[in-house]
From TrEMBL:
GO MF annotations, alphabetized: phosphatidylserine decarboxylase activity
Family: Belongs to the phosphatidylserine decarboxylase family. PSD-A subfamily.
Modified sites of kind Pyruvic acid (Ser): 187
Membrane topology: Peripheral membrane protein
Catalytic activity as recorded in UniProt: archaetidylserine + H(+) = archaetidylethanolamine + CO2
The protein, known as: Putative archaetidylserine decarboxylase proenzyme
Amino acid sequence: MFVKGVAKRASFLVSVATIPLLFGYHAIGILMFTVIAFMMQFFRDPERIPPSDENLIIAPADGRRLSGKIDRIERVGSDYPLIDRIFPDGGGGILISTFMSPFDVHVNRAPVSGRVIYTEHVDGRFRVARSRVLTENEKNLIVIRTDYGNVGVVQIAGFVARRIVQYVKEGEYVERGDRIGMIRFCSRVDLVLPENCEVLVRTGSRPMAGETVVARFNPGKKTDECAVK
């Protein structure tokens, strides 16, 4: 399965790429087919099956190929630029940040079920997404309200990724695992959780968006007060 519209465009490009081969320009034809193959693998959008337990929080982004992985897990407070949009009543949260390589699936998924209560696109620069670039790089915030507090998903553009796509709107209800957006080419996704959850992954983990469990809500503690296990 591919991102909507990609298969049709790829079919057209394959037809175009055969023309150089027919006229003996094999190097050009092979190069064009290589580019098409890369495009097809980048825009793939496989189905994912989230776990059934509603207390579980799943990864919003893939980090499985080459250097892709979860590379930051830490507490965040007022030092995190978008924290006041995620938790308008104050307080901090837990950050789980995933770097996506160019070979990862770049469709992002809802980590929880809930209502989209706030979205914001922030223009910025396009620095390498490996560094701490949240304050400078272009980004897009999606805040989802749950019974256990708000959850923020921050899509961050990188040096190569220069387009962030958001699929959902404010007021829309999303189910865990639903497609909520996409970042083109290597980039980063920050997941900001309320502190009534338990982190179940470690730095270096390689998550699969829509399936890998990264944290769990504490059903007996419906607050925005937080602690990392």
